[in-house]
Amino acid sequence: KAGVTQTPRYLIKTRGQQVTLSCSPISGHRSVSWYQQTPGQGLQFLFEYFSETQRNKGNFPGRFSGRQFSNSRSEMNVSTLELGDSALYLCASSMGLVDGYEQYFGPGTRLTVT
Amino acid sequence: GIQVEQSPPDLILQEGANSTLRCNFSDSVNNLQWFHQNPWGQLINLFYIPSGTKQNGRLSATTVATERYSLLYISSSQTTDSGVYFCAVGNTDKLIFGTGTRLQVFP
To 5 degrees, how large is the angle CA B74–CA B80–CA B85? Predict the structure, then answer.
């Protein structure tokens, strides 16, 4: 069974631009959650989508948004990029809700904002 | 919100040594996982262990949910064990990560 895939793997953007990251979950998984990893803040929960609905959101500004499609693939969008958005963005998929089921992570998208 | 603390923050070992990593959490949790993050950033699943004990080769883990801690044991460490180990707990619709233990194993 194929694992979680994320595209693109690396991205360089300029301040003020916007970016869209994609995550394809393991086949049969209905939950996709997103995380931001930075050296200063560690791994932080961004949001979870289950059956195309956002269930919960972490403590991030409204510039961070996402959506999930009927095939469970998810996209995350960051608008008006800031230097502090440079990070490794990880997505995870699971059979059920994020706080009750084993999570499987993709390889991540490394975003650099200049 | 729930707090997740890992200790020690850094660990340096010689190949063949054993080690114990600890994860303390401040509230009841629905799940608990241990991950190994490789140098490329990928989080590798080690254990899904909300309670009890599991073993997988040289690695084993124990979670005592009533006392709010989990332990990860690494025996006969190898250089390929180097990296950062995270525990993560599921609570109130979120997965919360600890700050990690950075392990370096030297030959």
Answer: 55
pLDDT of res. B53? 98
In sequence order, what are the beta bridge partners of B84?
B37, B102
Side chain identity, residue B90: G
Neighbours of B26 (CB within 10 A): 14
Task: For chain A, positions 46-105, list CB contacts with chain B under 8 A.
Answer: 48, 55-56, 58, 88, 90, 92, 97-105
In Å, how far are A11, A46, B69, B103 from A111, measured between CA atoms?
Answer: 5, 15, 34, 26
Contact list, B29 vs chain A (CB under 8 Å)? 99
- Per residue in B9-18, pLDDT (tens digit) is 999 999 999 9
Judge whether A33 is closer than 8 Å to chain B, CB to CB.
yes
- Residues B95, A98: C-beta atoms closer than 8 Å: yes
Partners of B103 in the β-ladder? B11, B83
